[in-house]
Design a protein that fits this description.
Two copies of one chain form a homodimer.
Chain A (H helix, E strand, L loop, with lengths): L1 E9 L6 H12 L5 E14 L4 H15 L5 E7 L4
Antiparallel strand pairs in A: 1-2, 1-3
Chain lengths: 82, 82
């Protein structure tokens, strides 16, 4: 068994209202020192074996089902066995 | 400038309807080989300097504003400069 992580984040040029809302709330809650916040999604996919075939399949899943490639970027990586 | 990543995932004992929905959709779309999916959130916080004070502050932000500690776990890490 292996775990593959897919991170999906809004593209840098895309407005991110969720991140902006978090960023705007921080000073009101007494936190300063954070200059920007972006919010995205994280998926953990459990697979039998993280071989090349499975990774290629997960890349296709990430680009079609897990992200909207018009407004989001994604990264796929195998989690370190730790 | 440094970037701190906060990953927020549903606790293992908590049902994850979003992850289950993704998992259920995979076979219909022709993907097999994925045995489980969990969906969570990923936050990227831009800070001036990732020193101990800032990291402690981000830990407090993560535990109060970014996650619901009743149903979610979070991890905080400084992103590798790459």
């Amino acid at each position: 068994m292996a775990r593959i992580i897919v991170d999906v984040m809004p593209k840098p040029e895309i407005l991110d209202p969720q991140g902006k809302a978090v960023h705007g709330a921080l000073p009101r809650l007494g936190f300063d020192g954070v200059t920007d916040v972006r919010q995205g999604k994280r998926f953990e996919l459990q697979v039998e074996d993280a071989d090349d075939h499975t990774l290629a399949e997960v890349e296709r899943i990430a680009g079609t089902l897990l992200s909207n490639p018009v407004i989001e970027d994604f990264t796929v990586r195998v989690e370190d066995a730790s």
